[in-house]
Amino acid sequence: MRRWDFGFLRFGILLLGFGIFLIACNFFSTVSPTLSPQPTSTTNRFPTLPPTSTPQPPIALTPRFTPTTLTASAQPPNNPTATPTQLPITNYSSGHIVFTCFIDGFDNICLMDGDGKNSKRLTFTKATDFYPTLSPDGQTIAFSTRRDGNFEIYLMNADGSNQRAITQGLGSCFAPNYSPDGKKIVFVVADEKNVQHIYVMGTAGGSPVKISDAGSNVDPTFSPDGKFIAFGSDRDGTPSLYVMNADGKNVRRVTQNMVVGGRNDWSPDGKRIAFYAGVPYRRDIFVINADGSGLGQLTNESDNRGPTWSPDGKWIAFNSFRDENNEIYIIHPDGSALTRLTNDPRPDWQPKWGR
To answer: 348-354 and 339-340 as β-strands: parallel, antiparallel, unpaired?
Structure first.
């Protein structure tokens, strides 16, 4: 065979191989499966808070009413809003604000001036101390503590000295509040079924008297004249704000169509009540007339709780997460002049304003 025949043969074999290659590529591209788009991950709007090292009180019938202990790591998501200016306060109310401060892994009681200055720690126990409130004369502080194994109501001098229990074995006791004359305390007791009842007893001791008769009830506060008590309750299904006579009679509902939190406070003239309401991590501060009229909203962002009036009625203090940490703020009752009082790496919460 001549040499050009071999060259032609080799050329034909190469051409045939190339054709087979093209056919195979087309076949596999046709039968190869197409990958489906993968679902994107979603993030919970309200992440679950991790457990804290602070002992927790028993859970009430509604989680909104459960006292919650905060840690620096257990923070709700922050709203990207403007940071309130630390304004020079020239017309703040005199007096003091007692509050819960999370230090060394436990809730403690702290006290500061009404302008946020001269803050000092009053309790140093390795147990939960919270729900502080000042007596009308500013000389004594009542609070709830678990230092004895069960939550009891304690009293101490405003400088932190002479700490002593006034309840024992009644149940888990929370949220004390003084009567205007300072002779009585109204507070909440959670029973073995975790239902919370309102009791009244003398500050010098004596037998506590139960004055609530329905539902789970929280955060009772005396009116400035001592005739009424405001409180939160789920007795009608939805957690709401109520007012009753100081003896527990004549209960009437103040708020409608709102999920109300517990802590509330009367204005010094006794005409209005400040409270908070909303879903977890998106709660706001409101004021309302004691008869249920004149509802006003003071805040509209982040998570805000625990309002308390200044003695002169010009300010309302509350705690908020708006600056990425639980801090104490003040605001006028018309919603103006929002001002931050505390700026600590620790959480500060549950303020109560007094003399």
So the answer is: unpaired
